[in-house]
Write a structure and sequence with these properties.
about 60% helix, about 260 residues, 2 domains, elongated, alpha+beta, single chain, Four Helix Bundle (Hemerythrin (Met), subunit A)
Length: about 260
């Protein structure tokens, strides 16, 4: 056997290297699969709590701003469409579609942040004055002094003073909208619609905040892809970015259908 025959035999025995594109796709697939297990665990925990507090979840879900939530999902889907289209375009159009995708991602983040601001700002207050029925107020504080709280919202009288604000308010209340000044000495309970109010809001903030962080990360990756496209070619980065946004679109729809319409699960 000649040396040339040995070299041919050795080269034939060595397996061919895996293409870099295939390795990248495998890595992205494994990352998204592990992340999907994270969301599946969160959704499973939410469903377990929903089974025990269905009435609470249905009532509390009505207080979440529905138009902003739908708009947020719409912008996530729009960002996914733009980034998917950018893959098949030339460099100038690719840059424009990616940039529009970044803008859509930023708008989605801003909408979810505004929902948090609304929920955390909204206060529910129980006030008890001597010789008068107890009253419950719900709305947005517009002023706060040492001896009183100014609130823009609605007021209803209570038949009992024993009310738990961690539970839904009675349905038979007669609300009167207006601007009210509540003496701080009469306030017996006060709470906002944060994760500390009840298990629904705890689950809502946990699931939606996890999704929000993912959208923020995907928007950052897309912004990096915009820079790479401006410098030259970024095909592999675009493939990974597109896969991430498609995964986020499905996750956003599932999570918000669960959070906003818990009665159907």
């Amino acid at each position: 056997m000649t040396p040339s025959d040995v070299s041919v035999t050795r080269s034939a025995a060595v397996p061919s290297a895996v293409p870099a594109s295939a390795s990248a796709r495998l890595g992205v697939g494994l990352l998204l699969a592990s992340d999907a297990m994270f969301f599946i665990a969160l959704i499973a925990g939410f469903l377990v709590l929903l089974r025990g507090e269905r009435a609470l979840f249905i009532e509390m879900a009505r207080t979440v701003p529905l138009p902003k939530s739908i708009a947020m999902i719409a912008f996530v889907l729009l960002a996914t469409v733009c980034i998917s289209i950018a893959r098949g375009r030339g460099r100038p159009n690719r840059f424009r579609f990616l940039l529009f995708g970044v803008i859509c991602g930023c708008v989605a983040v801003a909408l979810q942040a505004s929902i948090y601001i609304n929920l955390l700002a909204r206060q529910t207050i129980v006030a008890i004055e001597v010789g008068k029925p107890a009253a419950v107020y719900t709305g947005i504080p517009i002023g706060h002094a040492e001896d009183r709280v100014a609130l823009l919202g609605q007021r209803a009288e209570l038949d009992t003073r024993n009310i738990n604000l961690h539970r839904p308010l009675p349905e038979a209340l007669h609300w009167t909208p207006g601007q009210y000044e509540i003496p701080t000495s009469t306030i017996s309970q006060q709470i906002s619609d944060g994760p500390w109010r009840n298990v629904y809001f705890a689950g809502y903030f946990l699931l939606s905040a996890s999704l929000l962080l993912h959208i923020l990360a995907a928007t950052g990756i897309t912004a990096w892809a915009v820079i790479q496209v401006a410098r030259g070619d970024a095909n592999e980065l675009l493939n990974a970015t597109t896969a991430c946004w498609r995964y986020l679109s499905v996750t956003a729809i599932v999570v918000h259908v669960l959070l906003l319409w818990p009665g159907g699960w």
